[in-house]
Amino acid sequence: WERQCSEPLCSWISRCANVATRVPTRTDQRLVIYITPPEVEVPKGIVQSVANHDPDVDAIYRLGPRSALTIPYTFTPNGRPLILKPHAYAPYNAQATLVTQEAFWAQMLPMTVHGRVSDIWRSYISQRLLWSVGLRLTFHDPWVVQVRNAHDYMGDYMSERPLYETAGELIRILHAWSPAGDLPSSISSLYIHLYEYGFLEESDVVSVHDFLRDLSAIGYSFPPLLKHKQAEWTPSHTGGMCDYPP
């Protein structure tokens, strides 16, 4: 189990936290999550929880006026997960995050960029691949409460500069790229592509090859790339937002 957040498409983190009891149950097209009520149905893929008290906002936000989100902050649960449609990008981080078995391959973190950039780069890379196999990114009501350690906001800002300065270009490159073959070869191809554009280093390409090889060695079954129009995922009893192309 990891952690994260929903609201204005920011990247919320939650470190040390009270995680409510939940038992995920698999069905054919969805994941059912029990979080002290209600029971919520979401697509398989990656589910990011928001964090109460001190949600993860970027350093540039913490250095400026906090009129948009006063911290400490408590989200008002409404039981309505936000499910992003394909080609809508939103950063998620490496905490308070549920990854279903079908998306296990999406957990590889780039190691040649700063730790404050790594999980966000991974989130964008993973989302581009998730759509190709019919999986989704969902943001959910809080599972956690974060009490954040003291930080040097200016130091954090300097470490996060690639996020502010090059994220738009990364999205443009991801949007123009197309998968081919099967999922492992597409992951490998995308990492090489991002290395050629300077977003990752050679050791990231080597590491993802090793990771994919290890997954295959333990018998992991990669989901197939979609070759035809995607079937719409329809929740049976949740008010979640589902927006899928025809």
Cα Rg:
18 Å
Percentage of β-strand residues: 15-25%
Overall number of strands? 7
User: What is the CA–CA distance across the termini?
Assistant: 33 Å
Helix-strand pattern: EEEEHEEHEHHHH
Mean pLDDT: 79
Shape: globular
Low-pLDDT residue spans:
1-29, 229-246
Largest sheet properties: 4 strands, mixed
Strand order of the largest sheet: 5-7-4-6
How helical, in percent, are the residues? 25-40%
What is the count of DSSP helices, taking H or I runs of 4+ residues? 6
Structural class, please?
A: alpha+beta
Account of the 3D structure:
The strands form two sheets. A four-stranded mixed β-sheet has the order 5-7-4-6, with no helix packed on it. Strands 1-2-3 form a three-stranded antiparallel β-sheet, with no helix packed on it. The protein starts with 24 loop residues before the first strand and ends in a 29-residue tail after the last helix. By secondary structure, it is α+β, with helices and mostly antiparallel strands. α2 (115-130) runs parallel beside α4 (161-176) and α5 runs antiparallel to α6 (202-217). It has helices spanning 59-62, 115-130, 153-159, 161-176, 183-196, 202-217, and strands at 25-26, 30-34, 39-43, 45-53, 82-83, 97-99, 136-146. The longest helix is centred in the middle third of the chain and has 16 residues, at 115-130.
What is the strand and helix layout of this fold?
Elements: E1 25-26, E2 30-34, E3 39-43, E4 45-53, H1 59-62, E5 82-83, E6 97-99, H2 115-130, E7 136-146, H3 153-159, H4 161-176, H5 183-196, H6 202-217
Parallel strand pairs: 4-7
Antiparallel strand pairs: 1-2, 2-3, 4-6, 5-7
